[in-house]
Design a protein that fits this description.
The chain is of the alpha+beta class and 122 residues long. Helix content is 22%, strand content 28%. It has three helices and eight strands, in the order βαβββββαββα. The strands form three sheets. The chain has a three-stranded antiparallel sheet with strand order 1-5-4, with no helix packed on it. A hairpin with a 2-residue loop joins strand 4 (43-47) and strand 5 (50-54).
């Protein structure tokens, strides 16, 4: 279901009441649609004998979920043999879980600027 007329391309008429109801539901739930890169539309088909394109597939997020992740990325991938375009979600959690091992490469000690870099960093 589309939530905005900009999520539709085609000549078949759309039900504006349904569109507004869906947009209102998204707003009342306190979520928003994640912005995506790639194709503007995620589905294509025939309606009333005419080819149409719509953004039917989406990821909705609330503020708490958005703050949980430092990096979010959504991409509408290229069309395959299905009528829906696949979505690729990338995210990085804000807080690290577990311990991270310290790794040091001894070769840096031999670099002429090593001590200067350590001194400036500390």
């Amino acid at each position: 279901m589309i939530a905005d007329e900009g999520e539709y391309l085609g000549r078949a008429p759309q039900n504006i009441t349904t569109l507004n109801d869906f947009a209102d539901c998204i707003s009342r739930c306190g979520v928003k649609t994640m912005v995506a890169s790639g194709s503007q539309y995620t589905w294509t088909g025939i309606q009333q004998g005419r080819r149409v394109w719509k953004c039917l597939d989406r990821i909705l997020m609330n503020v708490a979920w958005q703050q949980q992740f430092t990096a979010l990325g959504l991409q509408h991938l290229n069309w395959t043999s299905l009528d829906h375009y696949p979505l690729l979600l990338g995210l990085v959690a804000d807080g690290r879980v577990g311990s991270w091992p310290f790794k040091f490469q001894h070769m840096w000690v031999k670099h002429p600027a090593f001590l200067d870099v350590v001194e400036q960093s500390w």
